[in-house]
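In this section we walk through a basic example: taking a raw amino acid sequence and producing a predicted 3D structure, encoded as discrete structure tokens. The instruction is simple. Fold the sequence below.
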Amino acid sequence: MSSQNAKILKFGSVIAVILLSMAYLAYTGVQESKSYYVTIKELGGMGDGVYTKRLRVAGNVQPGSIRRTGLHLEFVLNEEGRKLPVVYSGTDAPPDTLKDDAQALAEGEMGRDGVFHAKHLQAKCASKYAPKVNAPAGQPAGMTQSTSPAQSGGSGL
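The resulting token sequence is shown next.
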């Protein structure tokens, strides 16, 4: 075998190792970030598989259940009468919109202790986006009735 062929073989094998390493990293990254969206009701029917999967669970925060200590947060999600205790110990601060009766989405793993251990939280406050009660009929919420300069007798300048 000539030195030219040996160089090509070495170069080809290095490229193959790099490509295989990148493919492995991409595969493991996708597997790690994959999560299953389930309801609180479906958690009970998953059997032992519930403890091995990364899950996303949504529900309403039960009033009076929120306990904050720094970045540590405990609360209870409620969905159609079913309750799920949640413990959040993430690196980010819990959302400010996580309040009583707010809709919340917790992503993490179910513990064998019956507590959902969340790594990420999302919350929205439905009252923030609700229409104003005193909005006139036929007018979008948040809009106020205004008069143009011509209607108010002004010059418009």
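Looking at the output, two observations stand out. The two ends are 89 Å apart (CA to CA). The helical segments are 3-33, 40-44, 149-152. In the next section we compare this with other chains.
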